[in-house]
Amino acid sequence: MPLVEIYKLQNDGSQQVIATCKLADSQVVCEGDENLIADLNNGIRDYTNPPNEKLLPKDGIRFLEQLKFNFKSGYLNASDIIEN
Amino acid sequence: MENYPIELQHEEPIVKAVETPPPRPLSPKSPKEEILETGEKADSRELNGGMNKTVFINIVDDGSGIFKPAMGEVAIFTGIPKGTYHKRERAAYLVSQMLGFNFVPPTVIREIDGEVGSVQQFIPDAKSLHQASDHEFGPEDLRKLWIFDLLIYNADRRGPNCLVKDGHLIPIDHGCCFGPAFLRTYQGFMDQPIPADLIENLKQFAAWENNKSALRQLLLELLVEPEVDAFFARLERVTKDLVAQGHLTYSAINYD
Asked: Is A31 an 8 Å CB contact of chain B?
């Protein structure tokens, strides 16, 4: 089952997993920090398309693939797709 | 997305005669910038995730930073080549400081372990925008951020690249700025009043030729000349509109 972890940077430089997004039945289900999950469910940016394109969890693997482009500041980073 | 050169509107200068403008000293490097640039690295940890290489560094006896080496950059926007993101990070900080926004954390360029990149002061205990509630920062902060993003032509402003701490927004992650395209869906606060202190800062900056020249020279060390020219053209249009109207109009925003 493909999944992506979203990490929050701590003051000591360690990273805490605050959300996990998993592909289930061709859709993505995210669990973890409630505010972040609500934000994710509103959609993320698709960097392979014009900037007004948004990806939603229902877009499945494309949503997972684009998470690391949306979360890359260091304070919040998303992993590559992990095959669990 | 557009290619260079960018079509610029040529307009009359905002200030035709300088009459005892308020003094606005040139900005030497701040003590924090000096520390970030020359402080000894105590230790470092490469961070998991993201599309670019990011490294958390501790500086001996003096805080921490986020290091983004040029070699770890991945290009995602046409017209913003990999290998230039770190310079745009520094350029955004300089604009923030010299135009009076003062909200981008100190950012320098330096070499660490044989890699050149940007080092930005780490902000401890900061929330990301999604964690903060609306009352934790003022609506004026968002309007200032919008103006800032327009001036630096930010192609990539979203919640994850904005922090909140002590009642203020702290924008970060400016690798995708000063390029040929702006985030066009980011309409912001068109026709809404912009904070008076921001307008005054821009007005003062427009009146002080020394500072404009200094900023231009600093930006030319980081960006190509068409990008610097485009920035100053946007700055002139935006300042003129804000001084005259108190808000931006669509005519002042030349996306193309």
From this structure: no
